[in-house]
Design brief:
Blueprint: H1 2-5, H2 23-29, E1 33-39, E2 50-56, H3 59-70, H4 76-84, H5 88-94, E3 99-102, H6 107-113, H7 117-129, E4 132-133, E5 138-140, H8 152-159, E6 163-165, E7 175-183, H9 187-198, E8 203-211
Parallel strand pairs: 2-8, 3-4, 3-7, 7-8
Antiparallel strand pairs: 1-2, 5-6
């Protein structure tokens, strides 16, 4: 019934499509796919074990992420979900995990935007992967400056101690997918991973729509 009122559309060309992305647009964005799994287990500077790279943060991908985050085009979450698990290797890798956690935004920002863009996509992904979604475990307790306006060093300091873990028992000894929309320096995701490590999680993989 809902599809009759709000029919599914391709998030790229906005034409009605039950798959949320049409074949023509799939071909158009093919050059932006990375689809890599990077092993960081021997890198002592990183608190996560793996990074899953899906797309380049360029041109049409960048435009669509901005539309999704700042222009209330929430329907795009379906298209991004398709992009993320479109690759069989990525899909199979993600299914090995127990829990998906979206990177939280500060409460006043959530009120202003009306939704957490990462949580919306993570909810859909968790259903498709048949793994649990935990949106009440990681909490942002400090309203930080916009990361994109800062240098790499400033970003690390800006995000330090901005997150806490609650309900630790829900994630202890579990394999976690930590999800965010984009990654640039990785300061936010590394800080969140550090906090999760202190809660005795078994493994952390960071997943984003795009890499800047």
């Amino acid at each position: 019934m809902l599809d009759l009122i709000y029919p599914p559309v391709c998030g790229i060309c906005n034409k009605i499509n039950p798959k949320y992305i049409c074949e023509n647009c799939e071909e158009k964005i093919e050059k932006y796919y990375i689809n890599q799994i990077i092993d960081y287990r021997k890198n002592k500077k990183m608190y996560y074990d793996y990074q899953i790279k899906i797309l380049k943060y360029e041109n049409i991908i960048r435009d669509k992420i901005i539309d999704y985050k700042f222009k209330e085009k929430t329907y795009l979450h379906k298209t991004f979900e398709k992009m993320i698990i479109n690759n069989q290797k990525i899909y199979s890798f993600l299914k090995k995990y127990d829990i998906m956690i979206p990177v939280p935004i500060y409460i006043t920002k959530r009120w202003a935007r009306g939704y957490n863009q990462t949580e919306l996509i993570a909810k859909g992904l968790s259903k498709k992967l048949n793994i649990k979604l935990k949106s009440n475990v990681l909490k942002k307790i400090r309203n930080t400056k916009k990361q994109s306006s800062l240098t790499k060093t400033e970003r690390k300091q800006n995000i330090k101690d901005a997150f806490i873990v609650i309900n630790e028992n829900d994630i202890a000894d579990k394999k976690i997918i930590l999800f965010d929309d984009i990654i640039t320096t990785g300061s936010t995701l590394n800080e969140c991973s550090k906090i999760l490590r202190k809660a005795n999680v078994k493994e952390v993989a960071i997943l984003t729509i795009a890499v800047d």
